[in-house]
Amino acid sequence: MATWKALLGTAGGGDFVSSQAFYYYNSRLNRVPNPSFGLLSGDADGNFYNLLYRTGGSEPEYNNQNRNEYAIDLFDKDANYVSTSYVWRSDLSSSNSFYDSNGMNLFPNADGTGIVTNGFMEASYINSYYPMYVGNWSRSNFTSGPDSQFAISRTNVYYQLAAKNNLRIDSNGNNIILHRANVSGMKTAISKFNSDYTSLLWSKYFDDNYSDGRHFDIDDNDNIYYAVENDNYQKVAITKTNSSGTVQWIKQYGQKQGTQIQGVAYNAARDEIVVLYSAEYLIGNSNSSLALLSLDASNGNHSWSNALRPAQQQRNVRGYNLTADAEGNLYMSLSALGLSSPGGYRSSWGTAGIFSVEGDGTARYANAFDPDGKDSTGGQDFQGYNANSCLYDKYTDTVLLCGEGNPYGTSRGSYAARVPADGSLTNSNVEYSMGNSGYSVCYYNIPINNTSGNLHYESYTPTLYSWSNTSTNSYSDYTKTTLSLSSGNINDSTNMKIAGPIT
Fold it and tell me: What is the pTM of this model?
């Protein structure tokens, strides 16, 4: 693997952080949104962006407003904290805010020079409806706020909800958004806009009412794949449309309980579409297991399916934000409840880390951050740790990870990490400073399928079911409303702590 340092050799001057890199920060903007949203992004210069949510407070930088808002934290290529910029300023009307539970996402723009963010916004002053926010940010102008921002609304229909991980940019620079709209009840919808959102090219809604599994991806020919739970959360329903929105195939797989979709990724190296979800009663565990279902992208036929579960009952493991690299390796964040770790057994919050498999489903590694790293006195630093979002960063061949940490003696805070994609952080079971009041964290390997291991990874075969719902309908009565919003920037460096390189 080319190291982060090597790949960034042409990105600019100065010293580079080693590929053995992990850093942490604790911020007042410390509420991490629900898992599976796109909360991380990198750009072509090696910078790192992390999207967070804040529910208000009394700090003067926020004008003493107790309003909901988003903020983006920027780290440079050397893992130095640079700045926090608002996605939404809360010092406006009390009726204007964001909902973190209904969509909050961050994406690299088409040329890798900046980022795009969007989310569901409660803004009753816009035609008394609830639009979807879009903001465009360039790296060069980041500290001044977004270059442009506006809302997408739909005439006479409430709730234009942004979905989880819901934006893709196709080969022509068009923006494809997976979302929900109130169309005779809440429906999953796909809308395709041109590059600057000045024209809606087409929009479709699908005749299902399930919401938790709203994830999708596109392939190299701009075909679209999206997945939802169906049949009372027992089945995974996957739909493929072409670039014009015409349905190509619909398949349903399942047979278990408690299915919740957490990610969809197109694997170009194998021309397969892979669905990540959690389900109960898979491979011998009544609790939640992490499941991967890979289908032939041309026809939706089953290719392989594996599940990762804790070795013991009454333990849960979940994965979020499935992503693939050019070689076909798959990456996802991992949250596991009740696993043993170098810091001991934890029944609360659990461990957070990264799980990676090859394109054919073969396990590569499961690496975790110990939520109970010991401080210099031997005491426990953390009550727990979880993972909310994960992204393979093609610009640096690393994996970005974020979530919440819950240190003893403080309020919970957000963390972000960048680690080598090949899982090669060395010195397992060794603690490293997190740069926050002496807290430490232990990076370690979770054994898979050994006699005393924590995790079992095994194959299973889902059942193919017929699809009974109406496949698709169309509508085109969107309007786009340009917003006049305040934007701002704060220097939150006193609350941003980084550990620097791990060597």
Answer: 0.90
